Amino acid sequence: MKSILTSGFAVSVLLLGSLACGTGAGAQGNSVQREAISPISVSSKAAVPMSKNKIVLNKQTARFVAAGKVPGLGVHTGMTKSQVQKIYGKQTDSFYYFGGEFFIFERLPNTAFCFEGAGGKFSSVLIESDDLSTKTFASVKKTLGKPDTEGLDEMGEFAYQMLYTYNDNTMYFQSYKGRTMVSTLLIIFR
């Protein structure tokens, strides 16, 4: 299957504004307190778990995202493009989305990374459903609990979306086709 990240997807979403690379306003709030989560280390020196190049959604996800880490992908905020390239190989493509340039790497073709600021630090990730361990909205809710926001996309790009916010870092689960299957996950780190 051809990745939606390289098949015209980026062109159609340029109208959505400048949110992904930390330059716009996203969902507000801190939903970490809404469920009990067993303690794990989320210090900047803590290892980010890797899981065969799929983002891991479990009861620990809130703590990792709150700390600026993408569980399952082995990346965290502050990493440079060259550090991500060491993990996922050379850059194969790039496109503009939500006001920022996103890069795709050879060993993770269904995921794109945005780097911004001085030194180009990792700030956002766009993940196609092929790289998600959880693929339905129902399973996301079962795992992460009630979302901060859910419903029709007011911008009209997606048929349905759910948002979770952890320490101002927002996870946008989105669908092009309805309320059942997740098409993409966008995580914006502030």
UniProtKB/TrEMBL annotation:
Domain of life: Bacteria
Alphabetical list of PROSITE patterns matching this protein: PROKAR_LIPOPROTEIN (PS51257)
Signal sequence bounds: 1-27
Name the record gives this protein: DUF4309 domain-containing protein
Keyword Signal: yes
Keywords carried by this UniProt record: Signal
